[in-house]
Amino acid sequence: MSIKTKLLIFALCISLIPISIITTLYYFNARSTIERQTLDWLTAVAESKKVHTLSFLDSKKGRTIDFSSDGFIRDSLEAISSSETQSPVVNTLIRHLEVNKKPLDRHITAIAVLDINGNVVASTNKLWLGKDMSKATIFMSCVTKNYGETYIGKSYSVPYLNESCIFISAPLTSRQEHKTMGVIINAYDIAILDEITTKRAGMGESGEALLGMRKGDSVVFLTTLKYAPDMPLSKSVPLNSSGAKPMRLALKGEGGAIIALDYRNIDVVAAYQYIPEMDWGLVTKIDKKEVFAPITRLRIFTIILGCISAIVVIAIAIIVSKRVTKPIQKLVEGTKRIASGDLDFKIAAGSKDEIGYLAASFNDMTSQLGESKKQVEDYAQNLEQKVEDKTKEVKHMLVELTYKNKEMEQIIYVTSHDLRSPLLNIQGFSRELQQSFEQVLPVLNESGISPETREKLADALEEDIPDALKFILDSSSKMDTLLSGLLRISRMGRVVLAIKQLDMNKLISNIIGTYEYMIKEEKVKVQVGELPSCKGDNAQINQVFSNLLDNALKYLDSDREGIIRISGENKNGHIVYCLEDNGIGIVERQQTKVFEIFHRLNPAGNDVAGEGLGLTIIRKILDRHDGKIWIESEPGKGSKFFVSLPA
Ligand code: ADP
Asked: pLDDT tens for residues 122-145?
């Protein structure tokens, strides 16, 4: 990620994180404040509507009591109740009700005067006249009441009236005896309740107040609904539906405020109250959407603010990052040029800040680098020359060494070969001399030499001459052995190798065959594993393993049964064979020396015959085969001779 991008991300984080945290906190705080305030305010409205409803009903009750105290009505009823022929009095009573009483209250739909038997004796509504209401609750519950008391009906319709009404009744008593003579009923159009609920001042666009009552399993609304403008009492919703929750709570007798669904199934903030006198519920509500509209605006405003801040921050960050990264880019370009080898290139120092100092330091470093490079180049040139010279020297030495080696071999060969003839002469003549001396000695003894002379010659004849002759013969024989050894070694270097893939299993088996007698004699166990093949000259490699097996058999430990193991494996393209014995072993300091010519170890009690040439010959053969030999050995335990040859 480039510095520019990092700066951009950093600037965006620095600016947008606090903005988003603050606005989120502010948003939730404002939301809860608005919610709380709305709930409080709706509760207050609901309470005031409840008071308004109650006082409104009180005023209607008062009106009915007022009518029940009317002397003309009471006297007329008394007259009607006591006489047979009623029509003149009835007519004047009806006119009285229509002319003097009904106009007093514009909300009154009809007035009815009932006698003590529940018969409507006078009414402003002709349909009502003469009806028997003796079984109606509005009559029965009222006729037992005292003067000045009222009863409000819980049923809002009678079969004889078309409109739904609130019925308020009051007992009519005689003026003298205060004896109940009947009942007066005022019927108020139920739509009067709309006057209370439709006053929605301060309730916003969607605000609404509604009155409702329980009817069976439903809520029936007593007022005209804002969003369902049917007649009062015609709209109902099931009591258990989620849309009736505020009204359901109100009808349970509770008061409070909640956020719930209304009869339209729309989220509203609602307050509810119970009106126990009427068993009505009252709900005031506002659509949640309207309540939280300022919050929505705030959210949009916040998003816009966030976007604007992001744009401004990005613009500033781009400008700043360009200023910061431009010198760095120059520095990077400079380093690339320098890395490509242009050490003379200088980066413009530019600003006097850390980057400027860095550029200056970089330039210093480049100059130093240039100098060092020059030194290294000079040195490399010298070195190349030196290496070339040395290589030439080594090659020359190698040629010389090879030549000298060959010369040496030639000398050894010639010397050992040529020295053998005089040596053979010395051996021959010494033997002849010995034989002659052995012949001369008895003759001399038989001759008549004096005892004095015999005594004088005794030392020479009996000791000195035979000892000297024996010493000459022994030494010449040892010298012969050494010379023939040297001759063998020098011949080795001359043999032409016939390198081919060798079947080592067969080769080793043949060698073991030749040593079979010795193996049986010494009771040695020879174990041979599966041997991989290698490249080599059959005769020479045969020599190598014959010498090794010969040594393994020669240097066994007489205290334990001899075991010889031969194995082989392919190791990184070379075949490594191992010939292991449990013989006397070789001390560590001797393990390299045993490869030297004529070097023999003479462990105590070991008088094994040998020339000290076997391992020397092996090393020489392996050198010519690009092979190797090494030893792992422990005195008293045994030795492992490893031979590595090309695969
Ligand atoms: P030679 O066996 O004729 O003495 P070599 O060159 O074969 O000469 O061995 C040199 C010396 O290394 C031996 O004299 C012997 O002391 C020691 N040597 C060689 N092979 C073994 C072996 N398998 N165990 C112990 N000693 C060994």
From this structure: 999 999 998 999 999 999 999 999
